[in-house]
Structures are given as structure tokens and as C-alpha cells.
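Summary for the steering committee. The consortium agreed at its last meeting that each partner would contribute one worked example illustrating the joint modelling workflow. Our contribution is presented below. We chose a case with several input lines so that the handling of multiple components could be demonstrated. No manual editing was applied between input and output; the record is shown as generated.
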Amino acid sequence: MLNMTQTDYQEIFQTIASELENIDDPGEVATYIPELACVDPSKLGVHLVTIDNNHFAHGDSDEKFSIQSIAKVLSLTLALEIVGEKLWDRVGVEPSGSAFNSLVQLEYEKGIPRNPLLNAGAIVVCDILVTRLKDPKSDLFEFIRGITGNLNIGYSQRIAESEVQTGFRNYALANLMKSFGNIENDLESVLGLYFNLCSIQMTCKEVAETFLFLATNGINPVTNEKVVAPMRARRINSIMQMCGFYDEAEEFAFSTGLPGKSGVGGGIVAVHPGKFSIAVWSPKLNEKGNSYKGMKVLEALTTKTQSSIL
Amino acid sequence: MLNMTQTDYQEIFQTIASELENIDDPGEVATYIPELACVDPSKLGVHLVTIDNNHFAHGDSDEKFSIQSIAKVLSLTLALEIVGEKLWDRVGVEPSGSAFNSLVQLEYEKGIPRNPLLNAGAIVVCDILVTRLKDPKSDLFEFIRGITGNLNIGYSQRIAESEVQTGFRNYALANLMKSFGNIENDLESVLGLYFNLCSIQMTCKEVAETFLFLATNGINPVTNEKVVAPMRARRINSIMQMCGFYDEAEEFAFSTGLPGKSGVGGGIVAVHPGKFSIAVWSPKLNEKGNSYKGMKVLEALTTKTQSSIL
Amino acid sequence: MLNMTQTDYQEIFQTIASELENIDDPGEVATYIPELACVDPSKLGVHLVTIDNNHFAHGDSDEKFSIQSIAKVLSLTLALEIVGEKLWDRVGVEPSGSAFNSLVQLEYEKGIPRNPLLNAGAIVVCDILVTRLKDPKSDLFEFIRGITGNLNIGYSQRIAESEVQTGFRNYALANLMKSFGNIENDLESVLGLYFNLCSIQMTCKEVAETFLFLATNGINPVTNEKVVAPMRARRINSIMQMCGFYDEAEEFAFSTGLPGKSGVGGGIVAVHPGKFSIAVWSPKLNEKGNSYKGMKVLEALTTKTQSSIL
Amino acid sequence: MLNMTQTDYQEIFQTIASELENIDDPGEVATYIPELACVDPSKLGVHLVTIDNNHFAHGDSDEKFSIQSIAKVLSLTLALEIVGEKLWDRVGVEPSGSAFNSLVQLEYEKGIPRNPLLNAGAIVVCDILVTRLKDPKSDLFEFIRGITGNLNIGYSQRIAESEVQTGFRNYALANLMKSFGNIENDLESVLGLYFNLCSIQMTCKEVAETFLFLATNGINPVTNEKVVAPMRARRINSIMQMCGFYDEAEEFAFSTGLPGKSGVGGGIVAVHPGKFSIAVWSPKLNEKGNSYKGMKVLEALTTKTQSSIL
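What follows is the complete predicted structure of the assembly.
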């Protein structure tokens, strides 16, 4: 990776942004939740923060968006801190080769989800949090806010309600796991937490800052406080690398070379261990369900800065 | 089939019963619903009624038991009367080759159950009844009671509640179908009706009388009233023949040669078109989920009376 | 079933034939084997033979056609005679719910085919014959010819070769079963026999006569010689009823009510135990792979003669 | 990653080796090919070569072993050079979530393998080579030998023959793909090349040297000749990272953090882009089919040298 100055980055961001303006975005905004369909599809934000706390931003990077599945990494982080490697008794860590909400593998494998970033896996993680936390919702938000000390992070009540009303597939996954004994608590509590989690709203800046601990062996580099042990940060990075992009994991590894996680709200976070974390937001999704322009921005950036790790 | 007198039948039943006494029943009473586990496993009842209204009974044939999935044939009968062949837009009619509550095929086939005697298929049938009936529960019971004019047919509230509390797999099936748009009504109404249906209690005599219309081209032979059109009776018989015994359909066709339907309460009903209907009850189930002794009784009976249709 | 005279049958066949002339046949001749694609699609033959040796025929009933999968019943009959119920250690007897040549179920179930009328099941049956017969091909043909004493039954060398050259799916099935240890002999011998079997050619008259033993408890009614034990005949009938029509088993049971078996050459055989056997041939297949007009003829015939057993 | 001297490495290797001596290896030598079962299970070799051509070795690093699936990366490299990105029309690039030789996904996805490191995918790659090379076997070996100019690389005729005789599953995969039209050439040629490929024998030193071009953006650092374009090297690395370890991809990414590929002969190769390539060999496999001690060596090494890229 090259040594980069503020000017270098501004120039690179500028170049990438100009290049993207000439691209016809063939993607589609997610519509399965009515609230998501309302977002202005032309939004584009980028925010990169280095481990020595230099910030580089572009476009709508200070606007809140629905981070959706990106949040699954944060609930996983908390659950891992609480129960440690015992978590893997109830969730696998391997890529699934199936759709993110498929029930087939879950039935064949007796209610054990393939990994914690699939819907089923994230629901099991929520079940663990419901069991172990005193007040699951507020404790989870306290943890997330505490990573960077940002009290401004919250969720959209309207999106959470929208998820409840349309989340039949998630109810099916949760009931199937319950029938196998892999959900301990009542489903309303577990899915209530899950839908809140998916409805978290952040800006690109907030996402990049929140995920920076994964680039620093688990330390918040601003406060120097430990978020997780180094081994945990590495585990989460390897899970993101293998399972963070649904059926486009290899494509992302190839084009960008960084561990990361996408959400159907059009956000993507990626981490370069030892260097930086970056968040991108552009609402239109490619056919695999990942932000079309978000992927392009990250590909262009890692190419121009030679920061792929592969 | 031989011509049989009352004495002949009594003798045959006596012989079969003596033979069964010497058999060690390797089956197990169903325990997935606590209420079912309480039944006395030694119960054995048989009741056969011919189309000219001769009755032959043995053992505990006048004791109520939980007919469970046998009732799916009755809801199917009513739904077919109401919507006719359009029903097949939403449910298939072929054997599934999978477990009765599998989600795999349901996901691959986009929420269309393979046949109406699988749990998923019976849930779609209940959804249709909820849409089309004014007061689904009481209208369905009125229909069932009306087949023979027996007002004594009801369901066990305790079993129905037990089903609700343990029916996670059924909730999973219903939610999956809802996500594919194959359930129109809210799930509580649909599954409420479904669990009531599965909790119906009848005696062997009542089951045999209720199913006799399938041996008479759709006519109640006592009152001479039409229950369904002849073509419908034939359709229901062919569905029972192909799909009535989970993964033991061929075995039942081979050993007994009659269309029929089993339930996890240990009941089996079978129909010889043009001759008779018969109900057997013995709570211990073989490993395929069908009454061990019930199968033996029917096999012995059709052999001794030469009444197999194959 | 009504009592029918020669005149009655001629009249009924005539009526059915006239009705069919006005039907636009939407079916397609099978083309996966070039040789099959050459058949005149307008051919239509019917031949019914009763257990007291009365014959009723119509159309092209004396013309040879490729009986294809119908022959699987004959190899099964011979294998059952040789190894008896031990056969079921290596093949199941239940409907599959999958395509006739699917590998999915075969892999999940560790190389044990669901039933002997699927391609995989018929290949295992051929493997058993290769193990147990001195000269498998000629012994099998001797058995088939011996059922009725008809020395005129043979197979098409060109179709057999065509099957070899295009039968990659069958090679895949056989290799998969071999990898699970469910094929004992070398694949060329086993598939060689299998492809010969599928290439047998018969007329409708020959098919009806050959299958008559299944209507007579296993006896050749002309010579009074035993072909198989009564229990075997019943087993074969129940397997045909459950598994004889691919994904249209219930439909055939409903419309015709008889056990039977179809082939992609456009032939169908059906058996009414205690009454008759019947063969129909019309090359154009419906989308489920069964003869479109063949199904219609059998449906019309069983309706007009009231000979459905359901 | 730390700067390391020759002495440092020798010390680290020594420490790791001593640690491993005290470990009870629960793995099993692969036995599905008789020839593989004959290998001395106590063998352990390591060879690391840096991009500036420094070599560090330990144990049996100069002994030939059967590299098995590791060779799939080399055939893929050649095929990518010949047909470029068009390769992805016939093979996917995503992890499969299934066993390396499963037919299920292959049937559902109509003969398109999930990735080129699964058996099915490597067979398609061989088919492409058979189509495009004049003399496939010798041209492929010329390419492999040419990467480092090592004329000493060959294959074991006995293992190749052993693979042919026991490779029923691979024949099943190839026939299934042929039935879908995804194999162009006759199967004997394609599988002949495939079995030769899997029977390649190399020492740890040879493997490490051969794979070094993936750490150097596609350049042979000794001769400075281009093996592949930088973009190709990155693609191959990302495919190895996602798909190189069967059902243990995330585990390897977590513990080692490097792209790599294992073989059932007990070999593993891993690449640190910009730094080094390393080969390990220890014949006993864990239950996921990867070398038990090989994984331990690489984990210890990347930990001690801080060379994980995650």
C-alpha cells in the first residue's frame, strides 16, 4: 500500500466520483421493505478513516442510512465477547453457497446456520443476547454506541415495524430453528431484537469509525480502549471475508481484496487490517444484492491506492 | 372379495385379535405433543361399516381418540366442494418423497406444497377455508358433523393448545408459504383452524361412518344425501392412495391395497370403494409414523376377506 | 365393472377413437434419442385382453414400438423371482417426488434409489441380474419371451446404441451408485443390459398379453403356468400404482384408477387385477413425459366400462 | 510482518517442530486411493521461499509427495491464460457450502460447478484444456515445469491408474455435466487428463517455488518472466482464499490468514502476496480432509512471524 496524503485521497476520491458519474447504474433499490424503497437512489457517500485517525470523505458521507445486515457484525462482536468460542456450538463459520435466507441447508443441518452473517445465524446471535443481556435492546445499543462513544447512533422505528410486518421468511427461519431446539427464548423477543438491529441508521462516517477496531487488533485507536481481543478481531475479519457478501464473496475478495460486509440499504463497510476502515453508501443494488456503485468505489480505491491484501 | 356374514366377520376379527396378542408391538406412542403421550398404549379398536350399513366392531372401537392427520381429508373435502379444481393452483397432488413436514421441497417449489395431506398442504387448505367460510371453525365442524349427522364430534381443547405451543415446524411452514404469497390470511387464524382440525376426537365407529361416503361415490348411504360428487370422491381416494401414509404409501398399498389415511394418534381409516370403510386405532407407531398394529389389522383383514383392490 | 361383450368393446373403442380424432394433441414425440424422434406421431394402438383370453383391439395395435421404461417392470419381475424380498436392501419401494433421473435424492440417500422404476432403481435391478444370471441378456429375453411363449419379442439394436451414446445421465447415476457400493459389476455390463432392456420392441397386443399375469395373481391364464407367486404380482401392482407414472402418479390413479407403467416411446400398460390387462400406444408425450392420447384412451375406457378400482 | 533472517526462520521452524512433536496427531491418512494409504504417516516437510529468493526449509521438504488437488490451481492458471474471463461462463467462482464432490448443487445449477477447485470445476477446466491444447497432457506438464524451469516434475503412473479404477464419483460428476452439455470432449480424454493432474508429485520445495508467482503479481522472480498477468494472480489468490480448503475455508483464513490450497495427499500451499510462498506436507488429514499438522504449522508460523493478512 502506498503512503497517502490528504491531498492524494481527495484527488483519488474526486477521480473515482467523476468516473462513476459516467457509469449507468443498472442496480435497483431494495423494495422488500417499503421504507427502503423511499430512499433517493442517487445518494453516494464515502468515508475512510485510518488507524492514526485521519479522515477522508466524499459526497453524502454524513447522511444517515439504514445499515441493515452490516449491523450483524456488531451483534456478533458482542455475542463473541460474552460467550466466546462456545458460540460455534450453535452457528457455523463457513460460507453457505445458498441464498442468505434459505431454509434448505438449515433443515439438512438440523437448525444450525452455516454462519453468523446469514439471517438465520444472526437470529441465533440475537437469541444468545436475549438470554445473556439484562435489557437486550438497550444493552446492545449501549455496546454499539460505546465502541466509539457516539451516542447519536439509533434505529428507525418505522423500518423496524416494516421488517416485522414483512419478515415472514425470517419468522420461518426462527421457527424452524426453534423446532430443532436452537432458539432458547420466545420468538417475539428474539426477532424483535433482530429487527431493531437491522434497522440501525448510521452515516458513512459513523460506520467507518465504528468498524475501525477491526483494523487495529480490537483496540479503539482514539481512546486506546480494548473493544475485543486481537484474536476476536481476526476471527470477525475472516468471517467477513468469507461470508460478508452473500453470493459475491469471491468477487469482492478479487476486486477489493478486503474483508467487509454489505447491507441491502446500499451500505458496505470494508477493513484493511493495520491500515484503515472505509464505509460506502449507494442505494442501488446489483442482482446479488450488493451496492452496485459501492462495489465500484471500493474496487477503484483499492486499485488506485494499491491497498488490496490479496 | 368374498361375501361375508356377521358371523364371518366376528370370527375373522377374533382370529386377528388373537394373532395380534402374541405379537410384540415394537412401536412407540407419539410424544411430540404431551397430551398424545398420555394415551394407554394397549388400546385397540376396529370398526367396519359396509355400504349397506352393516357394522362389525372389535375392542375399543367406541372410545374417542385424537384423529390427527386423518382430519386433513375432511378439510380437503370441504375445500374441494367450495373452490373445486382451482384448489390445485395452490397445492399439488403428487407424493412428496420427503418427510411430512419438510421445508426443502416447499422452498424449491416456491411455496406450493406437494399435496394436501402434507402439513403444508393442509395449512393451505385451512387458509382457503378461512377465506371462504363465514365462521371457519364452526362451519368446518358443521360440515364434518353433517356428513353423518353426528353432533357428538368435537375436538380436544387441551390438544389444540398443546399443538400451538409445540408447533414451531408448522409455523415455519406457514411463514415460508406466506413469504411466497401462498397464504392469504393472518397466520394465527389459519394455524388456529389447522390445530383445531388436528385435535378432532372420534371413535373408530365415528371415523368409519364419516368416511363411508368415499366408498359410495360421494353419497351418505344412510340418508342418501350427496356429500360430494362421484368425481370428487374418486379424487380424494386417489390422493389418499398416493399420499395417505407418509413414506409408507407403497407398503400400505401392497399389504392392504386400499386408499386410506393415518394419523399420529394411532388411527387409520381405509376405504374399499363400492364395499366398506374401516377405522382402526392402536396408539403405538412404527418408525414411519403409522400405527404398527393398525397396519397389521388391516393387512390381515384384507388378506382374510380377499378385499385388496390390487 | 360392467359385463362387456365383444360388440360392446368395439363400440366403446370406436367412440373413444372418434372423440380423440377431434382432440388437438399438444404432446411432443420424445427426441432425446434420435431413433425415437423418427416415429410417426399419429400412430394410435390399443389392445385389451381379459383373464379369460378375450381380445379387443383398435388401430395400430399390431405394430412394434419401443416400450422403453415399461420393460423395467419385467426385469423387476425376474429379479424378484431370483432374490426375493432381499431386493429391498438395495432399492426402495416408495414414490420419489423427484424427476425419474435425478441424482439429488440418490446422493442424500447414499446410493439407494427410491424405487425400482426410476432409472437408478432399474439399473440396480440390472446389476442384480448380471450377478445372478449366467448369460444376462439372453436369459432375460428368455424370461420375457417365456411369459407368453412369444419368441417374436426382441429389441432394436439401433435404439440400444443410441441410448449408449446419449445416456450420460444414466452413466452418472450408475457411477454414483458404484461409488456408494450399490453396483457390484462393471458398469459396461450393467448399463449394456439396461440399454438393451429399454430398447425392447413390442406391439400393443404383445404388451397386453405379457402383462396379463399381473391381473391373474401371477398365473399365465392361457397355459395356466405360474409366472410369479400371487404375493409378487400384488407387490408389482402396488409398485406400478405408486411409481409407474413419474410425476403424474396421482393423476393416473385418479383418471384411470389402475396400476400401470408408461414409457417415453408413448406406450402405457395398465392392469385391472382379476379382469384384464391393456396396452395403449400413441407417441406424443405430455409435459410429464406420459403419452397424451394414451392417458385419454385409458381414462375414457375406465369411465365408460366403470372399471376403475378407486 | 516482521523482518526475518535465516537464523530467525530456522529457530521458528525448530520451535514449531518441537511443539508438534508433543502433539498427538488425531488425523488419518487418506485411503480412498490405495497408493495414498502406503505413505509413511510421520512425514513432515516445510519449505518457504520469499519473493527475493531466500529459502527456509525443515524436515522432509525434499521428498516427493502426491500433491493431488493442489494441482487444480495450476490447470486453472493455464486455462485462464488461454480462454480468459470466458472461463466463468462454464464454472462459477463462489464457495459451494457442499462437499468437494457433491452432485446435488451441480444438478440444481444445471451442470455449472460452483468453482474451479471443486472436482467438477477442475474437470471442466481439463475439458477446456483438452479442447484448446494440441497435446493436452504434455502441454500441461510443459506449462507446469516451465513456471520454474524444473524439468523434474512428473506424476505417478500408479496413482493415476488407481484414481481411474476408484474414481466413480468423478465419472458421475463428468457424466452429469456432459448430460447438461458442459463437457465438450469425450470423457476418457478429459478424465484421463484430470487423473494425471491429480497424480502430480512434487517436493515441498518444488511446490513453494512453483506457486511463488502468485506472491509476485504473476512474475517468476528468479527469471523475471511473466507467468500470468497481475490481475490473474489476484484472481487465483482470491479463489484460493474462498475455495481452497473445502469446508474449512474460514477456519484456514482465521488461523493462517493466507490464500492457499490443500490436497488429500497431506500437502498445503499458501501464499503471502508481496512476501513469500510456503508448502507444508504431513499425510494425516483432519476430518475436513486437510492435513492436520500442515494446518498447525502454518498457523504457528503466521502467528510467530505476524504474517497473517487479516
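The mean pLDDT of chain A is 92. The interface with chain B takes residues 102-104, 107-108, 168-169, 171-173, 175-176, 178-179 of chain A (CB under 8 Å).
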